[in-house]
Amino acid sequence: MPTIEKERAEYSIGDLAREFDVTPRAIRFYEAQGLLAPGREGQRRIYTPRDRTRLKLTLRGKRLGLALSEIRELIDMYEPGRDQRPQLERFLAVLESHKASLAQQRADLEAQLSEIAAFERRVRKQLVARRRG
Fold first, then answer.
1. What pLDDT score does 107 carry?
2. Three-state DSSP class for 9?
3. 3-state secondary structure labels for all residues of 107-123
4. How far, in Å, CA of 25 to CA of 58, rounded?
5. Is the pTM of this model over 0.85?
6. Does one domain contain both 83 and 31?
7. 19-32 pLDDT tens trace
8. 58 contact partners, CB below 8 Å, separation of at least 6
């Protein structure tokens, strides 16, 4: 029978790095950006379940292509027990904006690919004409 792992009270940087398959350097970077706020025990960083959740959400936001500032804004809006509607509305706005930006990038790429294809056809025709001439 599978065991359900109980949430731990604290995590080391190595624990989180292994769990989320990121480098300790990346975790320190997220800390420097204000996304994580571990406690300290001497030089050792002590991460809480809250930090673990924030790291998880940060990595999810990165997979979506969100900027760290957007991720931090969204995460900072969350407070347990508080109405989550403003956070959800802001998240939706960020997603819609990001989606529009990606759609524009896709349209730009398609236009560039079309232009490249046209130039390729011209160059191939010129090469064929030079071989014959």
1. 98
2. coil
3. HHHHHHHHHHHHHHHHH
4. 15
5. no
6. no
7. 999 999 999 999 99
8. 30, 35, 36, 68, 71, 75
State both tokens at 96: 């819609």
Query: How far from 19 is each of 27, 28, 59, 106, CA to CA, in Å?
Result: 12, 15, 12, 33
- Residue 11 DSSP symbol: B
Domain annotation covers residue 124: yes
Residues 86 and 133 in one domain: yes
* Domain coverage including residue 130: 79-133
DSSP string of 23-84, one letter each residue: -HHHHHHHHHTTS---EEETTEEEB-HHHHHHHHHHHHHHHTT--HHHHHHHHHH--TTS--
What's the domain count of the chain? 2
